[in-house]
């Protein structure tokens, strides 16, 4: 039996993630009090369900504080337990609530939207680190759907999931980054008119960067750092580690290096490779 928990800030895309689960055949439950998770799993297992998706967030109230302990209990009940935590910058959340005219679950006549968002961040701080984090700021809904599907397709395994994520500094450092490497010092294919519209996944750009010694040295240095410290992160009982690699626009250098490093580590951990800014450009 597999269970996928969805949590995160209101307005960060939890409904999109739940819809993805439902579309691929999961039994989905939204806004379940955290303390009812064991009973739900037992009931649905008895009814023959194999894949369950559950949203647990600040709407659970006081029961949310029990979630870390409940996760340990659930791991003994199911074969595969996964958790996604969705995050977004305050400015993005405020804009989304303004556009949809929805009311934040913690807002009231005495609590502004900004204050409600901060209270929600404080309430979720303890569980944010328990799941695979996705920063949905500036992320197109279609890209989020793809990222959730990629996460679901990972084979069940013990240990740490390692993600290499490219991004553009012009759009800001991703909130889900654990380690950040700046590769803006490398030669930029953007200044070649033939390479400008391409990305680091395209052969002409990859060939251009592969021929530059500094690019190879940067890849080796980042790879050595991650390899040296990966055992320590694993011993820390972390389930997910995101290595963010940034260049100016997130289209060429960072994309190439994220792909290269992802291939290097596929035999050492479960690996995901994501391209934040290049996907964003394609979706605009």
Short description:
With 284 residues, the protein is of the alpha/beta class. It has helices spanning 14-23, 37-46, 67-75, 90-100, 113-128, 141-153, 203-210, 213-235, 253-264, 276-283; strands at residues 2-8, 27-29, 51-55, 80-87, 132-135, 161-168, 179-182, 240-247, 270-275.
Q: Top keywords for this entry?
A:
284 residues; alpha/beta; 9 strands
Structure description:
The chain has helices at 14-23, 37-46, 67-75, 90-100, 113-128, 141-153, 203-210, 213-235, 253-264, 276-283; strands at 2-8, 27-29, 51-55, 80-87, 132-135, 161-168, 179-182, 240-247, 270-275. By secondary structure, it is of the alpha/beta class. The strands form two sheets. It has a five-stranded parallel sheet with strand order 2-3-1-4-5, sandwiched between helices. Helix 1 crosses helix 6 and helix 8 (213-235) crosses helix 9. It is globular. The protein starts with a strand and ends with a helix. Residues 280-284 have low confidence and may be disordered. Residues 1-152 form the RapZ-like N-terminal domain. Keywords: ATP-binding, GTP-binding, Nucleotide-binding. Residues 161-277 form the RapZ C-terminal domain. ATP binds at residues 8-15.
